[in-house]
Design brief:
111 residues; mainly alpha; rod-shaped; Transmembrane protein; membrane; transmembrane
């Protein structure tokens, strides 16, 4: 009988926990429950989580480095394109003014 009472007490406490979990069905409850699970797992397996942090942190650092390098390269290319565009415009305007000056003198007047 004593064991039956303990089982009933255990079942009552689990029912109470389930009712509390069902009350926290909202987003905050789900997030808190997931956080608790992750926290317990991290406390149980610290080396596994440490290796995750090292590996994925390394990937994050590498990705940030490559992203920054790509942005710097794009900025340099933009500056070079702008400089080239200005040189081409200056060359075109110089060649057009030279062509305007030489074209009346090269044409022979027709009588």
């Amino acid at each position: 009988m004593a064991t039956l009472g303990k089982e009933e007490e255990h079942q009552y406490s689990t029912d109470k926990k389930q009712a509390a979990n069902q009350a926290d069905v909202g987003w905050t409850g789900m997030i808190q429950q997931q956080y608790r699970r992750i926290k317990e797992n991290a406390e149980t397996y610290p080396y596994v989580w440490g290796s995750y942090i090292v590996v994925y942190g390394g990937f994050g650092l590498w990705f940030a480095y490559r992203w920054r390098k790509l942005r710097k390269t794009e900025d340099r290319v933009r500056v070079l394109q702008e400089r080239l565009r200005k040189l081409v415009e200056a060359e075109e305007s110089a060649s057009s003014t030279v062509a305007k000056k030489t074209s009346p003198s090269t044409d022979k007047p027709k009588y």
